[in-house]
Amino acid sequence: MGLRTVATFVILLGNGDCFLLHSLWYSYLQASEPNQGLPQFFSKAYLDDQPIARYDSHTGKVEPLVSWMEKMEKEDPNQGKKGNEMLLAAEQVFRDELRSVWQNGESHTWQAILGCELREDGSKGGFLHYGYDGMDFISFDKETFRWVTAQPQAQKVKEKWEDDSGWSQRNKVYLETCIEQLKSYLSYSKEALQRIEPPVGTVMHKTVSDKVEVLICQAFGFYPKGIQAIWRRGEEDCKYGTLLRNVAPNSDGTYYVRLIIEIDPKERDLFNCHIKHGSLQEPLVLAWKENPEEKLQDWGW
Question: pTM for this structure?
Fold first, then answer.
């Protein structure tokens, strides 16, 4: 679970007909020792997957990455301070945690993602996941106050943390504080977040053999992030035959998603890609149309 990988924890396509409206999450990385001049501790805050602030142990201070964050700190110093504390306070905690799971004298990394989300139906969610040396390690269930291990070596950490009821309670408070901070950020970032961009879609294909063909559906340029996309064979949803590439951000702040499915070439005309987004009154339905200039090597599928 590296710095890039932790982002996948909050990438959702929606829950049934319920879209994810907004999310706030923090990524953290603590190294056991300095490495090639890189900071030992690094943290970054994201609102709807767009970076809004960062902190590292070299500079020792929080750096706003968007103009509305600077405005908030001037107009409401208390809220600005609370947001900064989520980036700052973790450094000592992470240093202590890394020592507790350190297995030998070699160099190690301790990573985490902590975040929360608001959904279209008004429900809320929170998540706290840890990684050790780039692998999923352990995560917190705030409803049961239990820790869920992803690696056998995380069992001792689980037992230690569950014996400390105060530690679990503090993590529950962190996740609840995250929701309040998310609401505060949304009040200052309305102009940036209220835009609506509909998805543009296309379908391409690649011949694998006489009996197998690959169809690739891509929706891109949409905002906000919540989207539902699925391949259909006639009126039947192809839930199990689809390889879904996670929703990912573009450099301009919009998003894209890609779906891949293997089919029998004889049934090609039966398949359609269905896309639902808050900007669309009707689902966007796409099918492959032959294009002599189609070049799949640029898709990186």
Answer: 0.65
Q: Which of 147, 66, 77, 61 is nearest to 112 (CA)?
A: 147
What whole-number distance in Å separates Cα of residue 220 and Cα of residue 203? 12
Provide the sign of the torsion angle of the four alpha carbons 191, 229, 296, 294, taken in this order: negative
The CA distance from 97 to 94, in Å, is: 5
Q: Which two three-digit tokens encode residue 95?
A: 């240093």
Residues belonging to the chain: 301
Is the CB of residue 92 less than 8 Å from the CB of residue 100?
Answer: no
CA dihedral 67, 69, 75, 76 (to 10 degrees): 180
Tell me the sheet residues that pair with 71.
none
* pLDDT tens track for 40-72: 888 899 888 788 889 888 888 888 888 888 888
Extract the tokens encoding 223: 């905002």
Nearest to 117 by CA among 67, 185, 55: 185
